[in-house]
Amino acid sequence: MKKNINDIISGTFLIAGTLIGAGMLGIPSVTGQTGFLPAIVISVAIWLYMLFSGWLFLEATLWMHKDANILSMTKRFLGNKGKLLAGLTFIFLYYCLMIAYIDAGAPLFMSFVNAFLGIKITGWMTYAIFTLIIGVIIGFGIHVIDKINYILVIVLVITYVLLVSGQLPDIEFTKLTYQNWSLTPFAAPILFASFGYHNIIPSLTFHFKENAKTMRYSIFFGSFLALIIYLFWQLTIIGIVPTNELETIYREGGPITQTIQILSQKQWIRNCIKLFGISALATSFLGVSFSVIDFLGDGLNLKRTGKHRFVLVLLTLIPPFIITSYNPSIFLLSFGLAGGFGEAFLNGILPAWLVWIGRYKNKLKSKHMLIGGKIMLGIIILIGLIVMGIEIKILLHH
User: Fold this and answer.
1) How many other β-carbons are positioned within 10 Å of the β-carbon of residue 236?
2) Nearest to 192, CA basis, from 33, 386, 397
3) I need a surface site. Which of 50, 122, 184, 234 has the fewest CB within 10 A?
4) Angle 201-97-217 (CA atoms, 0-180°, nearest 5)?
5) CA 204 and chain centroid, separation
6) DSSP letters of 142-209?
7) Are 272 and 162 contacting, i.e. CB atoms less than 8 angstroms apart?
């Protein structure tokens, strides 16, 4: 019993750690235009959706052999065409995310360096240095990534607490009464990208000896913890930053951190914002880039060590670096694309599709992680398609 509780706590924090990151810098830019009450409603709705799809992904994972991943799962249930579709979507999703991380992280990191070391670097070199640092860290492998990530998570938690507690007295509760329900659906793609954790479900499932109960609770509590943190963050930002400022951020496509730095009159708050932003982006960046290295290594049949790892690091980081260098201020666009297409399909539609095939076509014994049968699976697939449609409308509007 004690081991199960310890495993649930461990799984909870691993999932929460995967979730809490760069989404903190994108969510308020879109939900802030809707108002705080609509922001709560859409955040909870997307959390529930991603919770349900996570449970479905767990159900499909439990049908697989040890060390299975998204490629082996889709090949088994959907054939080679399904495997190819999942593989292309995976690359699209994580390259979009890395583009967002470089775009927002590099200027923040350089402003931090400039403030504390007096070194001023601008232009493409900003993105090159930030990408190079990430590349060196992931080049050394999981042990170095773990240590760096541990430090960054501590910094993230401390600065988050300081920012929220330090800004609470400045919240104007009249700002929280504003509501614009018509814009609420357009926050869905960014929230989809912010609630994605499904890529670690296979690894965690086999790590916990395929204990379905442990994983089910870990997914619930881990994602719920992230939801609470996101809601408090939105309360802080929406209660302080004027709606017109949030609209400007959205139009310019940048992260929320830049505006908060400008608006804050306290130097320690500004420094906290920089540290918070860097740690949020870096933790996400390290996790995603590590996943891509493993994915490419598996797909290209390359070892994850030595010169092969060097090649994999280049393949992982060079494409998003080039795109960001030539097209700055792409944070919200790439983050929205990741959520509206990548997450909506890979972590929304696909889990329901896999379970449908497994339950009703292959007649596999199911633990039924999600009740509702075919109707619920159909709703999950339909909502994923709707979010993809919303992202298309956003792109056409822009």
Assistant:
1) 21
2) 386
3) 122
4) 25
5) 17
6) HHHHHHHHHHHHHHHHHHHHHHHHHHGGG--TTGGG---GGGGGGGHHHHHHHT--GGGHHHHHHHTT
7) yes
Element (H, E) at 224: helix 212-238
> What is the C-alpha R_g of the chain?
20
- Output the CA–CA distances (angstroms, integers) from residue 163 to 127, 167, 195, 232, 281, in the order listed: 26, 6, 22, 11, 16
In 20-123, which residue ranges form alpha helices assigned H by DSSP? 23-31, 36-61, 70-117
* Separation of alpha carbons 300 and 201, rounded Å: 23
120: helix, coil or strand? Answer: coil
For the chain, domain boundaries: 2-397
- Compute the distance between CA of residue 331 and CA of residue 257 in angstroms, rounded to an integer: 12
Q: How many CB atoms lie within 10 A of CB 50?
A: 26
Measured over the CA atoms of residue 281, residue 103, residue 54 and residue 208, the dihedral's sign is: negative
Say how many C-beta atoms besides its own lie within 10 A of residue 72's C-beta: 15
CB half-sphere exposure, 256, CA atoms < 13 A: 27
Q: Distance (Å, rounded) from C-alpha 229 to C-alpha 16? A: 10
d(C-alpha 229, C-alpha 227), whole Å: 5
Tokens of 385: 């398609």
- CA torsion 382-383-384-387 (nearest 10°) is 130
Q: Does domain 2-397 have CATH number 2.60.120.200?
A: no
CA pair distance 266, 166, nearest whole angstrom: 10
Determine the Cα–Cα distance for residues 229 and 89; give it in Å rounded to an integer.
28
Q: What is the pTM of this model?
A: 0.90
Tens digits of pLDDT across the chain (398 residues): 566 788 888 888 888 888 888 888 889 989 989 999 999 999 999 999 999 999 999 999 999 887 778 888 999 999 999 999 999 999 999 999 999 999 988 888 888 777 777 777 777 889 999 999 999 999 988 788 878 888 888 888 899 999 888 888 888 888 999 999 999 999 999 999 999 999 888 888 887 887 889 999 999 999 999 999 999 999 989 998 888 888 888 887 778 877 777 666 777 888 888 888 888 888 888 888 888 888 888 778 888 788 889 999 999 999 999 999 888 788 889 999 999 999 999 999 999 999 999 999 999 988 778 888 999 999 999 999 999 999 999 999 86
* Amino acid found at 185: P
